[in-house]
Amino acid sequence: MKTVYDVEREAERIEPEFGLEPNGGSNRRYGPQKDHGDAVAGPRDRAGVRLMTFEEYRSSARHSSADFLVSGLMRLGTVIAIGGRPGSGKTALAVALGQALDRGEPFLGREVKSAAVAYFAIEDANDVANRLEALEADGVLLVQSAEGIPLTKPTQAKAIIVEIIRQARHRKPGRPVLVVIDTLRAALGGVSVLEDKFTSPALNALRELAEAENAVIAILNHTNRADPKALKGETLESVAALEMILLPGEGDWFTIHVGKNRSGPGNRQIGRLRLSSVNVGGVEAAVAEEIIADEQPGDSGTKDRKPGANQKLILKILQREVHASGIPYRPYGSDGPQVKAVRESVLRDAFMELKAGDNRNSKNVAFNRTLDWLLERAEVVRNEDQAGVGMIWFGSRDDETEAMRRQFKVVADDDDWPLGGDK
Length: 423
Fold this sequence. Notes:
The protein is α/β, with parallel strands linked by helices. The chain has helices at about 5-15, 55-60, 90-105, 125-135, 155-170, 185, 195-215, 235-240, 310-325, 345-355, 360-375, 395-405, and strands at about 70, 75, 80-85, 115-120, 140, 175-180, 215-220, 240-250, 255-260, 270-280, 285-295, 325-330, 340-345, 380-385, 390-395. The termini are far apart.
């Protein structure tokens, strides 16, 4: 049987292998350590674990904490998220960001580092190519991958992005790298972004990769219907060092809102974006017509304003469809209340037909923005049925009752009813 003395003798023989000096200092076993030339020569085990002060960490860290790609917004070695509802300009903003970084031009009034930009357009590569052509942004590199980027297989996805970064560095030597993934939903191959058992391993793998490669990985993703400032998916919100979210603004503008920001002030508006539709090879493409820095502190990204013509038009279409062909729907289960709902596609088609103008892309953007405005203010509610079809209904029972009443009584003072027939 080993005695305590035997165990201590054995420990003394083993400890030098781990950097300990058993006979140094007043404490025989844990005395002063030799300096081997590192920031600190503390005890470490075979896994390379070391305890350091912040000064020791910074002197030994591979990357500087102030190594920015975009000053005050994007720090190298991080994942960022660009969010917004469909048609809000996520891709247009990402393309404009890529163009600014490629050319070394300021972005939202902030200094940037010239970067090699690799754009992984999983959702619609032809559309992104058209936008780049329209802007003459020939320095932004499109990714073509036979395997796509299978985020449900994190090891495989990491290997693909490592190769993208390697090639980007070869094409643009000496530059940091930005990789854009457009969009998270498409990269997951149909798996819901809310399925954390799939998204958590994938997104944490991307975060580790961004840090290891000292690159920035930008992930485009849809925001929630209920809260347009909230990204879909808890994991994305946790791994992202920056959240830039596009929100409906005044007139034709979208506001660029920063939520979480580990590199500067967050929870504020930092700019505004206005879209323009251009024709490339007979196909409409939405690009950023104007991006301006416009910083507003606090929660001013969403300003309260009165309903405009588009809001009134959607509400009147909904009123018509509710009493003409409303679908009995129980959004909260068989025991929940029943509402009269209308398919979102029906509303969209009617809006596209009745709104003035010939530019379908602009009208589609206007529909998405207007619907988001109504949802945010609880004028209407949206959910998806079991088949994934979007359903819309009035947020108030009184509004639904009024819509049903219209089939029996004409509202004579409503002179701007645009739909024809019974008011």
